[in-house]
Prior knowledge:
Helix content: under 10%
Largest sheet: 19 strands, antiparallel
Shape: globular
Number of strands: 19
Radius of gyration: 25 Å
Distance between the termini: 19 Å
Amino acid sequence: CWRRNIIDPLGQVWTPYASVRADIFSVNPDTTGYPNSNVGSIVDTSDEVFGRAMPAIGLMYRYPFVATTSWGTHIIEPVAQIVARPNETNSLRVANEDSQSLVFDANNLFEWSGKFSGYDRVEGGTRANVGVLYTGRFGKEAFANLLLGQSYHLGGRNSFATGDLVNTGLDSGLQTDTSDIVARAQFSPMAGLFFTGAARLNSTTFEAQRIDAAATYATSVITASVGYGRYEPQPALGVFRRREGLSLNGSLLVTPNWRLRAGVLFDLDKYKYDREIRIAQYTSWMASPATIAQPRYTDSRLMQTASTSFGINYTDECTVFDVSYSQSYADRQSGATKDTRTVMFRLELRTLGELSYSQNLDGSTVGDGVTSSSR
């Protein structure tokens, strides 16, 4: 890609941009067994090799206004960006494996390469992104950063409205011509202490569709963080209920090369859904007690542990070695009894590459392989 910053005599910053991306795909779908045998009713399942090219041209405009006061320096910066691309092609021919985790927020509002997270999907059409950025610095260490913005689909096919085999893009906040509103706030009152919050708001009702908040304290020896998230349902993705959770994470440097870490995730919404299941089961039993066994209930706490993780890391000038263990707890209320336990090993030789291996303790291997990372 090519990009250049041009500052005019008024202090306005113009950034022209151009890029070309090309991909080659080899598709050999497995249509045996359930549910693979039904894929043919949606897409062509023949073996094929095909390519895809996506050129892009764009321009970003920024005009920073700087003010200095007795208690800090403040920069207010309106930002506007337009990127033109041809329509995305072959979204239903590519098995979307690495672009499913689409999260539209302030972090990728002005992303030149597009808002999809991986390589299997690519953003097409013409889109404008606008926002206002505030940056403040107070004293030697404190700073604040605020961003408010929105995205507009101007022409061509909206990649986020067409979906794919897993409907990535739908219910993302980008599927309409006028996107949801995204906002981010960051504040650090002192070195090592950091607060951040982010939200995505419906552009019509201003109801929060996604909320994230976190607080982190870090030194050279210890790191501790607490995070909160609340996400509204995404029916097009098969998520019909609100999700709400609280995470706690920490790490400790025990020697100059060895670090321990641990984390826990709590589900804050599950007790509500357990209550609904109890009511439905009890209603069915009361209607036909002779044919339906009396339901047995498990305890539902307001904060239920969803997962835990532990790890150890070794790092020196040439090598990174990491071992982690994670456990996701089964939904006992729905009848599941088997937790998911995973051990993962990662070895990185900084000048050669990286080897990772993940093993579910029930016997299945996940995501093992070698990834080149040579420099």
